[in-house]
Design a protein that fits this description.
CATH topology of the largest domain: BirA Bifunctional Protein, domain 2
Strand content: 25-35%
CATH superfamily of the largest domain: Bira Bifunctional Protein, Domain 2
Largest sheet: 8 strands, mixed
Shape: elongated
Strand order of the largest sheet: 6-10-11-16-15-14-13-12
CATH class of the largest domain: Alpha Beta
Low-confidence stretches: none
Bound molecules: 5'-O-[N-(L-asparaginyl)sulfamoyl]adenosine
Distance between the termini: 32 Å
Length: 428
C-alpha cells in the first residue's frame, strides 16, 4: 500500500506492506530505523534483529539511503515517528542497494543541477511536480467545461510567431526550419473549424537572458477563441487562472504546506482581476521612482514594482505597437496601441500570460510585415486565413512554469520544471 493510505487507515496491530526508497536510516545495535519514502509520504520502519530473518536484518543494516526496499510489518502509533505511525518490520527486503548518494546537505546549485536526475527525488521537488500536474489537470477540466477543444499543433515550423531574434533553427531535410515559439498561428487556423481551442505544447526561445523567469524550453498553454474580442479574452484568462489556483488549493494542501505556500494566498485569486492600461502602468512606475516614458518595455524589475504588493493577478492592457508582435489588432481608441493584455502575477512575480485580439485585416498585416521586414512567404498560409471567412478572434499564451513558479513561490523558474533548459544548461 502507499504510505499515506497506511497512515490514513491507521489500524494499529494490522500488517501492512509498503515499498519505496530509503529516506533516512540509522541503526543502534540490534535495531535499524529505516524511514521509507514513496510517492505519497514517508514512514519509519523499525527493523529489530529478533523480529526478522537474519538476511533481512543484514540488508537493513547495510542499505544506504535511496536503496529501494519492500517492508512488511505491524502498524504502531508512535508520536516520535514522522506521520505519527511506524511499521514494526516482520520482513525487510532490499530490492536494489544504492551506492553512496551524491546529494547531501549544503551542496552548490551547479552540483545539484548536474545531478538533477537524482535531485528530483527530494520532497520539495516532488511537491512541485505534483502541483504542476494538478494545475495542468485543473486547466484541462476548465477548458473542457467551457467548450474548448484540445488540439495538437506542430512543433517543427517554418515561420516565427514571436519574432526572429529568439528562434532555434534547424535543418529539416535540407530546408530551414525552427522549433515553435508558440502554437498561436496554428490555433488561429483551427478556430475556423472548432471555434474554441487550446493546446499544451513545448515552446522554445533562444533567449540568452539569464533571469529567474526565462527558460529556453518551456510548456505553453495557449487558448484561441473565435467570435471573442480583447475583453472576452481577458475574462477567459482570469477564469482559467482562478480555476487553476483553486484546483491546486483544493487538491494539494499538503504539498503547498511542504513548500511554504499558504492555501489562503491562492483563495485571493478571484476574478475579476484589476485592469490597468500600459500608460497607467508607466505613471504608476514613475510614481515609484522609475523614470520611464511611453514606449519603454516592462521588464522583470518594472513588473515586480507593479505587483509586489498585490494578492491577485492584474492585466496590463493596450501596449504600444513597437513593443508587440505584428499580428495584434489595432486599438481604434488609441492608434499608438494594440488591443492586447499581459497578465501579471502578484507578489512581484510578473508576467504569466501574453494575449491579444488578432488583426483580421489582410492589408494591415501585409503592411506591418513589410514595415518590419518580415518575409511574407513563410506566412502565406497564415495570411490566407484572412481571405476565407475571417472573424473576430483572440487568444493568449500562459507560461506553465511561470505559473508554477508563482503558485509555489519559487525563487527561480528552473525549479518549476524537472529538467530545466537554460542558455548554460542542456544536461541532464
Ligand atoms: O511571447 S508571449 O508573451 N506570447 C506568445 O507567445 C503568444 N503567441 C501567445 C498566444 O497568444 N497564443 O509568451 C506567452 C507566455 C508569457 O506570458 C510567459 O508566461 C511565457 O509564455 N514565456 C516564457 N516562459 C518561460 N521562459 C521563457 N523564455 C518564456 N517566454 C515566454
Amino acid at each position: 500500500m502507499h504510505i499515506a493510505d497506511v497512515a490514513r487507515s491507521g489500524r494499529e496491530g494490522s500488517e501492512y506492506s509498503i515499498r519505496g526508497w530509503i529516506y533516512r536510516t540509522r541503526s543502534s545495535g540490534s535495531i535499524v530505523f529505516s524511514v521509507i519514502r514513496d510517492e505519497t509520504g514517508i514512514m519509519q520502519c523499525t527493523v529489530k534483529k529478533s523480529d526478522v530473518a537474519q538476511e533481512d536484518f543484514a540488508g537493513a543494516q547495510k542499505a544506504l539511503i535511496e536503496s529501494s526496499v519492500e517492508c512488511s510489518g505491524l502498524l504502531k502509533k508512535d508520536e516520535r515517528a514522522p506521520g505519527g505511525f511506524e511499521l514494526r518490520a516482520t520482513s525487510f527486503h532490499v530490492v536494489s542497494f544504492a551506492e553512496p548518494f551524491p546529494i547531501t546537505a549544503n551542496q552548490s546549485e551547479p552540483f545539484l543541477l548536474d545531478n538533477r536526475h537524482l535531485w528530483i527525488r527530494s520532497r520539495e521537488q516532488t511537491a512541485v511536480m505534483k502541483i504542476k500536474e494538478t494545475l495542468l489537470q485543473g486547466a484541462r477540466t476548465w477548458f473542457r467545461e467551457n467548450d474548448f477543444f484540445e488540439v495538437t499543433p506542430p512543433i517543427l515550423t517554418t515561420n516565427a510567431c514571436e519574432g526572429g531574434t529568439t528562434l532555434f533553427s534547424l535543418k529539416y531535410f535540407g530546408q530551414d526550419a525552427y522549433l515553435s515559439q508558440s502554437a498561436q498561428m496554428y490555433l488561429e487556423a483551427m478556430t475556423a473549424s472548432l471555434e474554441k481551442v487550446f493546446a499544451v505544447t513545448p515552446s522554445f526561445r533562444a533567449e540568452k537572458s539569464r533571469t529567474p523567469r526565462h527558460l529556453t524550453e518551456y510548456w505553453h498553454m495557449e487558448g484561441e477563441e473565435a467570435w471573442v474580442g480583447n475583453e472576452g479574452n481577458m475574462k477567459i484568462q482570469e477564469e482559467l487562472v482562478s480555476a487553476i489556483a483553486s484546483s491546486v488549493a483544493k487538491e494539494r494542501k499538503d504539498d503547498l504546506a511542504l513548500i511554504g505556500r499558504k492555501v489562503d494566498d491562492l483563495k485571493a485569486v478571484e476574478p475579476p482581476f484589476e485592469r490597468i492600461t500600459y500608460e497607467r502602468a508607466i505613471e504608476l512606475l514613475n510614481g515609484k521612482g522609475k523614470e520611464m516614458s511611453f514606449g519603454d518595455d516592462l521588464g522583470t524589475d518594472e513588473e515586480r514594482l507593479l505587483t509586489e504588493e498585490l494578492a491577485a493577478p492584474i492585466f496590463v492592457t493596450n501596449f504600444p505597437k513597437s513593443l508587440k508582435a505584428f499580428y495584434m489588432k489595432d486599438n481604434e481608441d488609441d492608434l499608438r496601441t494594440y488591443k492586447c493584455a499581459d497578465m501579471l502575477a502578484p507578489e512581484g512575480f510578473g508576467e504569466i500570460i501574453g494575449g491579444s485580439e488578432r488583426e483580421t485585416d489582410y492589408g494591415k498585416l501585409i503592411r506591418r510585415m513589410e514595415e518590419q521586414k518580415i518575409p511574407l512567404e513563410p506566412y502565406r498560409w497564415y495570411l490566407d486565413l484572412r481571405k476565407y471567412g475571417s472573424v473576430q478572434h483572440s487568444g493568449f499564451g500562459l507560461g506553465i512554469e511561470r505559473v508554477v513558479r508563482w503558485i509555489c513561490k519559487l525563487e527561480h523558474i528552473r525549479d518549476a520544471t524537472p529538467f530545466p533548459r537554460t542558455p548554460s544548461r542542456i544536461y541532464p
